[in-house]
From TrEMBL, chain A:
Family annotation (Pfam families): BPD_transp_1
The protein's name in its UniProt record: ABC transporter permease subunit
InterPro entries linked to this entry: MetI-like (IPR000515), MetI-like_sf (IPR035906), UgpAE/MalFG_permease (IPR050809)
Domain of life: Bacteria
Keyword DNA damage applies: no
Organism name: Nonomuraea phyllanthi
UniProtKB/TrEMBL annotation, chain B:
Entries under InterPro entries matching the protein: MetI-like (IPR000515), MetI-like_sf (IPR035906)
Protein name per UniProt: ABC transporter permease subunit
Family listed: Belongs to the binding-protein-dependent transport system permease family.
Subcellular location: Cell membrane
Native species: Nonomuraea phyllanthi
GO cellular component, one term: plasma membrane
Predominant localisation class: membrane
One Gene Ontology biological process: transmembrane transport
Membrane-spanning ranges: 12-34, 77-96, 108-127, 139-160, 181-206, 258-274
Keywords: Cell membrane, Membrane, Transmembrane, Transmembrane helix, Transport
Record-linked CDD domains: TM_PBP2
Amino acid sequence: MSTTLDNPPRDTRPAGAQPGRHKRARPGTWRHALRRDWQLYSLAILPLLFFAIFRYAPMLGNVIAFRKFEPGGNIFGERWVGLRYVKMFLDDPTFWNVFTNTLILGGLTLLFCFPLPIVLALLLNEVRNRRMKRFLQSVSYLPHFLSMVIVAAIVMQMLAIDGPINQLVKALGGQPTVFMQKPEWFRAIFVSSEVWQTVGWGTILYLAALTTIDQQLYEAARMDGAGRWRQIWHVTLPGIRPTAITLLILNIGTFMAVGFEKVLLLYNPLTYPTADVISTYLYRMGVESSNLSYAAAIGLFEALIGVVLISSANVISRRTVGTSLW
Amino acid sequence: MDRSRGYRVFQVINAVILTGVVFVTLYPFVNIIARSFSEERYIVNGEVSVLPRGFNLTTYKIVVSDSMFWTNYANTVLYTVVATAIAMLLTTCYAYVLSKKHLKGRTFLIWVAVFTMIFSGGLIPNYVLVNSLGLTNSIWAIVLPNAISVFNLLVMKAFFEGLPQELEEAAAIDGLNTYGILWRVVLPLSKAVIATMVLFYAVSFWNSWFTAFLYLNEQDLFPVTIYLRNLIAGATGAESAGAAIADVSQAASNIQSVTIMLTVLPILAVYPFVQRYFVSGVMLGAVKG
């Protein structure tokens, strides 16, 4: 146990503000609040300890990106080394390879996994039979509830040399391929399994937004002679735009962390050239090779890009369409 | 007339597309069920699609007789129960505190939680921390680092804010203190949201594998997800398999299918009943933003 863990901000209570016994506290002061609500504050102690230890201490722990870290030593490192580890990864050709892979994989995922739920939600919305609609929703949500390990196992079974995809390839007169060992196939495999896993669940918020659209708008559009396509274009899409933009911003925020667990489960040294992303590279560097400071520097870089991406997406969307997260 | 015919054409196309979606979503499950019951030679020849070929239970018997599989399965149950209980305790307490609008410092307390959604410490500092706390190779490495999900916290906070204040005030006048109000008044009114939160946590702990992968390295501590991971990792030839049944002459993919089936079964069994809770929970969270 390290005493340094108590560093992060845990409470705003001034150190001396113990509940006073003899003086009457004035409303609005900390003393008054503590006296009245100390039982409520006491309920917050364990959760605040959790946040301090398991959320804020690791945030501060990122200083090992700039400090020499000895295994078993201080979790905040031993001594300052400045930007040594940052320079190191900027000069590391493998880093730039995984950086490119991350951009490509993240871009492809965004390209498919962002718009497809909108399309599926619009199609589901046209199903008139309620029971049928509920069945379709239940089926399409199912993959969301599976462990990533199960998804990976299913992907491998589907693409096995004796699996359904290769059966199809053979039926069409092709040669069976060991897809999981071919770098040129990895991106397609990753993105399509991501679509399989996420698109159904992704429709939920859109379906909810669709039910809130005022039916009178559709009637008005019909009066003006709008066909179904024009109704979708002029009424439906504007109706779900705030939802879409919010989800787009969130998707952009997770862009850099793209599919870490799934890549880790699906890739192998043969597919590293296209499959290895920043997060898996820093995992191997840090956890498998114990270059923890080096890996922390890469991780910090990744997180910073993530924050920059989500903030700029937020600003752009506030300026252009008036919707933003904060 | 023309419009309604165009609409009918659209309905047919829509039906075809949605049937395709259902097929693509369900086919992998059907295929894996079929494989799990099939004879090895049909699988190896790539002849198993929708129905089992050469129906048999041999592979199920092999997997079921592996005691490590059951040890790991029991671990999954244990981790899920303990982690969910602790997560519920912390989340409920904090959500209740945050739901009290009059509380001084409330905004700060909310930001303590919400900030961790925007910026997280990252893999390496977490790994260093858990190691230095000496939690490695214990259940606490699985349970503690993910004890509060901020999303669930906000859902619960929103629910508590929606409860009528008068009841709590009346209870306070009757002499109940804050703990009594939470336990005897608020929680009995919150059964729906508690059920939803328990499901959210339980499913996420049941499915989790990476924390176990990172912090546990003794086979009898693994959850069943790691058992399956080691099985499939062995199949890629990338890393060494931890499976004790590698020497059995059944086709590896046959054993994988059975293990997938047995792992996914509890989720599939409860899924039809709990699905709507998840949907309503997500809605609640989204409205809160």
